[in-house]
């Protein structure tokens, strides 16, 4: 091995000594390439009587090719298979090898001798460096310990290796960093380089990156390759432990799985045990403790103890407070169901024990009734009966909520409503009416007319539908009565029947028209007459039209008399004065307008006051007159 190292040093010294001699042309080539070496001493067209030679020189000169008057000779056995000379006396070498690195001399012999030299330099990039670590983890110590080696093979000329720690180069320093190298040249002439690294590793070196770099030369210049980075694990003892909750991240509630983790501030393994403070029972050992489906009783202080395997006499402890939030089922101040009567007042509280402050709301049929623990109902009606849901949540603990249902039963005689207070019908035609009853106990609905009935029940509400044939007897009676009865009493509603050929005209005020539909706007399953249709019916009766015209004329005369009397009382028409007196204010004209409502029955009309006229005190607005009676 020593002789190989000395030989390598000699070759390096020879290559360095060659350098670039004066007058010598350098040609660079990579291993396996083809290279051409020119001969400057040869001129094309010179006499064939000359002797032309190529010689190689490492330590001594050796003829490798000769051409002259005596013919052609190629005495070199190594190059003859890979060597050729063209008509310009250029030497071509294929599949260049490391052994081809030398000086080649071109010589022309005639009456005088001329020659020139070409130096061939050969290069080969090494393979990527590889780090081999002596072990995967190292103890923290001030003593120098061997870390590992870096190796790169098949390079030429001789590559060099540099070590790095956290991107900073390491240099050999006695008692701090030791780097040793071994270079080996193979029979192919290529080099294998290997470097070993030894250094002391401290606590701060934990997780540090160490890698090596090989530097080499090619015809294109200097190059380098890095090895894979190795992460150092430095083992050092813990001085304290830390206990923390790993899961869940937020507040802990009943039913959660909780994971506690205890770890030391060192990298050496610890013997860890868990227990609840004040209790001797060991809950588990290892790096973590899992508490499944915790309850309120799981709250408390948990403690972990860690001991170094190499120093069992000393122990380290830490503790954590675990609070498990809870929310009990709510309780009502009154037992469900609660029985009340129409018109009563009711207040029910909903309370639930919990670990922190709660929020409460009440819901009824999907609607929020209260944002409070108290549900207060005033002037109770049958519509307020049903199930009320109390929902209690913990705002600071997402996902924790409970609920409970309270049933309220309103006990009283039925509350009735009908689809229409009046409908238009035609004799011998089918009519349909609907009646709804709210009550507890369950009421029985009866009709005064014979027909086909059907009932549908939804909660405390019963809907009854009657389909009947309009007879002359029913028209004489003029009403259909819906009656609902239970143990608490009975209620009834009437639906008036109007013959569609003689529709009624109701007396209403303008405010009535805004709040209550006219009889013709009530529905009766096809038996009511729309306004347009009713006007057509009115036009068909000549007597009805004549009556309407007479009434309108009388109404206009009455209005005119009322206006004149009003102006007289206001002093607009003074008595005893001669000449004509304008009964209107200067610059104004009194507007007396009779408006026929196009969407109301033809019998209805209204007097609109003038635009500039102020209403006298006590005037209650516009009035509509019922002309039916």
From TrEMBL:
Which Pfam families is this protein grouped with?
Answer: C2-set_2, Ig_2, Ig_3, V-set
- Membrane topology note: Single-pass type I membrane protein
Q: Which UniProt keywords apply?
A: Disulfide bond, Glycoprotein, Immunoglobulin domain, Membrane, Repeat, Signal, Transmembrane, Transmembrane helix
Ig-like domain sequence ranges: 21-119, 129-233, 237-323, 330-407, 414-500
- What ranges does the record give for the region Disordered, renumbered to this chain? 509-534, 597-629
Where located? Membrane
Q: Name one GO cellular component term.
A: cell-cell junction
GO terms, molecular function: cell adhesion molecule binding
Chief location category? membrane
Give the signal peptide, or none: 1-19
**Where is this chain compositionally biased, Basic and acidic residues type?**
612-629
> What InterPro entries does the annotation carry?
CD80_C2-set (IPR013162), Ig-like_dom (IPR007110), Ig-like_dom_sf (IPR036179), Ig-like_fold (IPR013783), Ig_sub (IPR003599), Ig_sub2 (IPR003598), Ig_V-set (IPR013106), Surface_Rcpt/Adhesion_Mol (IPR051116)
Bias-annotated ranges (Polar residues): 518-531
Please list every transmembrane segment annotated in the UniProt record, as residue ranges.
544-568
**Gene Ontology BP annotations:** cell-cell adhesion
Entry protein name: Cell surface glycoprotein MUC18 isoform X1
**Which organism was this protein described from?**
Xenopus tropicalis (Western clawed frog)
Q: Which gene encodes it?
A: mcam
